[in-house]
Structure formats: C-alpha cells, structure tokens
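Intended use. Records like the one below are meant for learning the mapping from a protein sequence to its folded structure. Do not use them to infer anything beyond what is encoded.
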Amino acid sequence: MNLERPVSYLRSRVPLSEEEVRCLSSYESWWVEEGAAMSATVDRARTPWLRMYDERGERVDEILYPSEYWKLLDEGYRAGHIWRVFEENSLRPFFLLGYVTSFWDPGLYCPYTVSISTAVAVHKYAPEGVRERVLAEMTRKTRPAQGATWMTEIRGGSDLGAGVETVARREGDRWYLTGLKYFASNAGAEYAIVAARPEGAPRTVRGLALFLLPRFRQDGSLNYTIQRLKDKIGTRSVPTGEVFLENAEAWLLGKAEEGIYLILEALNISRVANSVGSVALAQRALAEAVKYARIREAFGKPIAFHPLLAREIRMWEEELAGAFALAWWAVELLDEVWQERPRYSSRYHLFRLVAHLAKYWTAEVAVRLTRWAMEVYGGIGILEEMGVERLLREALILPIWEGTPHRQALDALEAMERKQAHRLLLEALKGRVDEGSLQAWDRSLAEYLSLPAEEKEARAREVMETLARWVGRSLAGTQKVSSGA
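Structure written out for the chain above:
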C-alpha cells in the first residue's frame, strides 16, 4: 500500500472495477502532473476578488478567481463528479473521485459536494420541466452549471428552526424569497437549494421549506447579490460569501410541509462527503509525515526509526484504516437509500446514525492527524513554504461544516431514541464483529439511553466518539486489504 497515492489506498481497502481504476488513475495522474501545483497557487492567492459592478454601473457580482481555479474545477467535472452519478445511477463515483480530489485539495471537494446535493434534490423533487432542464445543465461534462446549498444564517445553523429568517412569499405558482444567507459556500453558483420559511409557517423546523433558486431571473437580471466574500483560515478553493435575496424567484421543491426532511437529505450527502474528504486529508497528512520522517535524521538515524515515532506511525495507520472503514460504510449505506423519500425505511435510519458517527469521528481524526504531522516536521512545520501547515488549516473546518461535533452527537442520540438506530447498527454488524462485543455494546447503550435526559446529553459526545471508533476499527478488520498495486 502506497500512502502517497490515494488510488493505491482505495484499492487496498475496497474492491474497484477495472473502469473505476482506469478513471481514478487517470484523474490521479493529472493531479500529480498538474493539479497539485495549481492547487498550491490558488491557496496562496487566498480569497478571490468580487467585482460588484460593470463599467456601466450595473450590478454583476462577478467573482474573479485565479485562472488555475477553473482548470482545477473543470478537470473534476470532466472526470465525472456529477455526470457519472446520473449515468450510473449511483453516488459511488462521486465519493471515489472526491477521495482523490480531497487528498490534494479538500476545499475543492466542496463545490462538487454542494453541486451534487443540489442535483439530487432537483432530480427527486423539482417540478416537471424544471427538473429536466436544470439537470441537463448540471450534468454537462464541460463547464456544467454549479449548485450550492444555502441553509445557514447569521444566528447559526444548528438550530435551523430559530435561525432561518429568510421568508418565502407565494404569488400563484411562483415563490419569492427575501433574506440574507450568511455562510453561502460556492457563491456565484447557477443554482442553489435554499431553506426558507413560507409566510405564516411556524417558527420551528417544521415550518421550513426547501426551494431551488436560479442565479438569474426570467428577465436575465441577477436573482441574488453577493454582499462580500469572506476571508477564511483554509478551504480557499471554494468562495464563501454573504448572499442577499430580495424577492428572489424560486421553485418549491417537494411539499412545503416536508421541507425539513429535504433539507436534511442534502445535509446528509454533504456529511458523508465531509467524512470521505476528512479521511483523504488524513491519509495525505500521514503520507507527508512518514516521508519526512524517513529523511530527517536525529541522533544518528532517521526519526521514523526511533521507537516512539515508529509506534505513533503504526497507531495512526490503524486509526486511518478505522476512519476509512467507517466513512466507506456511510458511503455504501447512502448509495442504498439516497433515492428514498419521506417516510423513510429502517435502512435509512441506520444510514443516518452511521453518517453522524462517521462525520463526527473522521473529522476529529483529520484534525488530530494533521496536527501530529506538523509536530513531526518540528519548527519548519509552521512555515507556509513547507506545505504541511496547509493540511491543518484545511482540516480545521471539517468538524464544523454541516454540523459541529456536538450537533452530530445529539442527532445520533435522537436517532437512537426515536428510531432505535443503535439496534439497527448492532444487527447490521452481526457476522462482522464478535458476538461478545455486540452484547457488551447492547448493554452499554441500553444503560446510557436509560439515563436522565440532561445526563444523556452531557455524555453524548463521549459515548458517540467511543462508539464511532469501535465501529470503524471493527469494520477495518473485515475490509479488503491488499497491496493496492
């Protein structure tokens, strides 16, 4: 297994078809030969510029990227991040290609992620006529229309019921949205799915609906404006801005009363993508640390062969394998259920729990491993020119995107209490984990769920981390393991 190549690692952990190997290897070669250098250039350029007005004083809100940005983005779209999903009727190509992308640039995976979340919502819930036209634009192989998922506002994203103040007003069969989306990733996208509250709806999550918002109105004018682009510590490969909606034209997706379910469907796709990206970044950090440790000598030999560091390398290899196994199980489950609609099957509720565990734990592994990689480099690890500090910058957003660790732990608890998802989890692990461990976890979770409500909430993060790590390590022992050659 070659830690320095994502395709090698994928081949060592999951079965891949010949066509998948061909596609992924070609994409990986492009990154090695061209993409990695372009990605470093985009990162050094930091936040792109926002050109708000043209020479006639008319609002255009054009985002001015380095030329390398479009080359990076276009290559991934050509490889098939979006179009392969609908050609193959499977989300698997999106996650496989995303792993390769995230190994070099996890921030770049974000535009693809919000685009696939948008495309899936359109595929499942858009009105007839809109669905066909928008999907045709989003599945082009060259310069497709991009998507975005705009849920979060200035009051935060965890409590969507109270935090979303964008209002949706209906006139006949048309909807008009007014509000400010404070954390709008992939600002400038041609289409966005947007959480808003229809007039008169309750100020709870049950009052939210999901809408499809085009960049341009029917008359060709801007349908939304970008107030500013935000400077961020990392993820410079995706523009994040404040987007203002003023009677913006939109289409309702699905039924208004089921909006929160549609919103969570989109978020769950992103959470699994976050898990895949986290593991890919963790692999990159481990690869860089091991490579450096083999050439850095101290006290007469390379530091990789000093007992303490050698032990830590083995420990992180095991942690990486467990995190990958957990993330990939979330991928497999999502690929089974992604076309379900409310009301969901028990398999979907199992997916939900695994997705929360995976999103929580893989992001934690990414942060801890990238920080350790900087330690291996020592003092030079903090220098931008060495590149390893970027890995930590990229990792820091991963626990926060699409729900903080607290949110994942509490949502996992909710799935256990309301849907008995922990029983579904243990049942699904039969035959892959020894019976004694399953029985021990059954007793432990029953005791935990019998605690008073406040104590359960206070201990949620501790319990979910332990459970996630155990599931990942258990699965890693049953996954395909080969040389990856």
